[in-house]
Amino acid sequence: MAISLASASIRVFLLCLLLLLASPLPRAVRCQSSPEVDVFEAAAEEGDDSELGIISDDVTDFGDGSFSPAPGIDTICVFPKNGAKLVPAGEETELLVGLKNNGESDLEVIAIKANVHLPFDHRLLVQNLSAQGFRNASVPASAQATFPYIFGVSKYLQAGNFDLVGTIIYEINQQPYQSTFYNGTIEVVEAGGFLSMESVFLVTLGLALLVLLGLWINGRIQQLSKKTKRAPKVEVGTGTTDASLDEWLQGTAYTQSASIKKKKK
Question: Where are the domains of the chain?
Fold first, then answer.
């Protein structure tokens, strides 16, 4: 009797385990990177704005003021599939902003904005890029999230290197803060072109050097071929004969008569 009850219990346990494995996983999965830190992917799926919404570019809720960064907030910036940081003029470019909340309170991301400056002097502003706002973009304490930012420089901007300064604006306990997630160089290129002026110059210079090297090698080959074509002359008695002619006349009556004359002498 005891054995039958034990076997029945094992069957029930196995059945429950199979049902648990066969059940669909939740749509939103929280990845545990460490015992105390939760990782959230804030980028919404295509066509789904229920969890994270991107507001239109005309965002004025945060004002035009400059705020100080909150303590315990770390940021990072990544250009996906664009390690060279090439920005085509007049076209959209995407970057990802990573934010890690090491504080004790949750924060609400309000917007991301950026500016383009001349590299040698940031006081010379080139272009104010469009600000991008968010809704339902909260990051709990001891968690991190990633936010997309899509921007485009003017199609009239001359190709070259510029400095991009990007900031993310957020609120903690209804107090606004901002952190700079990128302050570095980008390379603006012409739309549809992936080569900069420097790259074109280097490629042209390399091709010119290859052509010069080919011409020099060709000249040396021609000089060597001319030297080999000159056949040496062999003295025979008081006269001279061409060694190349002797080779052609070997075994003929001419060579036989010449040998008879040598024997008589």
Answer: 31-193, 195-231+244-250
Distance CA 251, CA 45 (A): 94
Q: Which residue has the higher pLDDT, 210 or 258?
A: 210
Q: Report which residue type is found at 190.
A: E
- Tokens 């969890």 appear where? 51
Contact between 189 and 182 under an 8 Å Cβ cutoff? The reply is no
Record the pTM. 0.55
The class (CATH top level) of 31-193 is: mainly beta
Three-state DSSP string of 72-96: CEEEEEECCCCCCCEEECCCCEEEE
- Angle at alpha carbon of residue 189, lines to 128 and 197, rounded to 5°: 130
What is d(CA 152, CA 90) in angstroms, rounded to the nearest whole number? 6
